[in-house]
Structures are given as C-alpha cells and as structure tokens.
Amino acid sequence: MTTTTHQLTRHDYKMIGLSLLGGALEVFDFIIFVFLSAVIADVFFPADTPEWVRLLQSMTIFSVGYLARPLGGLLIAHYADRYGRKRMFNFTVLFMALPCLAMGLLPGYAQIGYWAPLLLLLARIIQGAALGGEVPNAWVFVAEHTPARHRGLALGMLQAGLTFGYMLAALTVTLITTLFSADEMRDWAWRIPFIVGGL
Asked: Are 144 and 2 contacting, i.e. CB atoms less than 8 angstroms apart?
C-alpha cells in the first residue's frame, strides 16, 4: 500500500534505514567469502592439490551462491506476496545468518575430508537463495511503502546500503589481515568475519 503524503515521515526514514541496514548486512554475509577465498581454498581442499586448482574450487563454490539467487528470488517472492514482506525479511535474514555462522564454525578438509567442501557448498546455496529473495523483496517493500514522489530517493538509499555491505566486507578483511599473521589467518582468524556476520 503506497503512502499518499508527499513528504517522507519519520516512519518512512525508519523503514528505509532498517531495510538499508538489513540489506548491507546480508550482502556482507554473502560477499565476505570472496575476500577470503584464498584462505578458504587452503582450509577446505586437499593440500596436495595445486594452489590454482584449490583457488578455482573455492571460487566455484562462491559462484554457486550466485546461481542459487534466482531460485531464492522465485520462492521468496511467492511467499512474500502470500504471507507478507516483513515475515519474509525475517526468514531471509535467518537463512543468510545461519549458513554464515556455520561457515565460520565448519571444520576444514584436514578434519573431515570431502565433507568440508560439500558442507561449505550447501551453506553457499542457502545463502544465495536467501540473498536472491531478500534484495528484490526489499526493493518492492520500500517502493510500496514510500511516497511516489520520493521513491527514487528511497530505492537509491537502499541500493547504497547494499553497496555499503561490499565495502564493509572489504574493510573487515583488510583489518583482520593487518592484525593477524598469514599462519593465524589460515588457522583461525579467517573465521572471525563469518562468526560476527552470523551473530
């Protein structure tokens, strides 16, 4: 239902701000993987595999998240139309955060063998589906609840929030790679952004 007033109200700003924050955090949870893909390649794939193959495998798992987005978009949009967008926001936030937390806690290849990359792949599929449903749902939600005169501004702010998620992920990885040695990164420090994002 579209608001009929011509000015953005405090409620409008709150709704846009929450949508912006939710989108930024979901993008952070989704994209942090790519900034840590080299470390993930070392942790989740056999050490005797050439480094370029491990990196290719890591990037393939990252890409699968993007391939799952249309499926999530179709399913979540259907249920958002039926049960409401706010309810689906909660669902997508949960289904982005839980796999992110799981990735931060997953044992590596040295501990559980090929189960490690398979569980990582499953977490990425769930994340991709969640993001594919959350972003279009956020655009529609903001468009429906913003005065027509300010719809472009509201959607632009939402898109800026999504872009902020990319920047936040890059800054987080820059910070932890500065604070920790390469060995610490490989042993445990790479998990920090995933656990923080999941929580």
From this structure: yes
105 Cβ partners below 8 Å, 6+ apart?
191, 194, 195
User: Locate tokens 């080299």: which residue?
Assistant: 38
Q: Could you tell me the pTM of the whole model?
A: 0.84
What are the tens digits of pLDDT across the range 80-89?
Answer: 778 877 777 7
Rounded to 5 degrees, φ, ψ at 108 are -90, -175
Write out the two tokens for 8: 């953005």
Angle 102-30-107 from CA coordinates, rounded to 5°? 25
- 10-198: CATH topology: Growth Hormone; Chain: A; (1.20.1250)
Distance between alpha carbon 178 and the CA centroid of its chain, in Å? Answer: 23
How do residues 147-180 score in pLDDT, each as one tens digit?
888 888 888 888 888 889 899 999 999 999 999 9
